Amino acid sequence: MNIILFGPPGAGKGTQAKNLETKLNNFQVSTGDMLRDEIKNNTEIGKKIINSMSEGKFVDDQIVNKLIKNIIFDPKKKDKLIFDGYPRTIEQAKNLDMLLADSSQKIDFVFFLNVKKDTLIKRIEKRKILEKRSDDDLNTILKRYDTYMETTKPVLDYYSNKSNFKEIDGGLKIEEITSKITDILKV
Ligand code: AMP
Question: In angstroms, rounded to a whole number, what is the distance separating the alpha carbons of residues 29 and 86?
Answer without folding.
Answer: 8
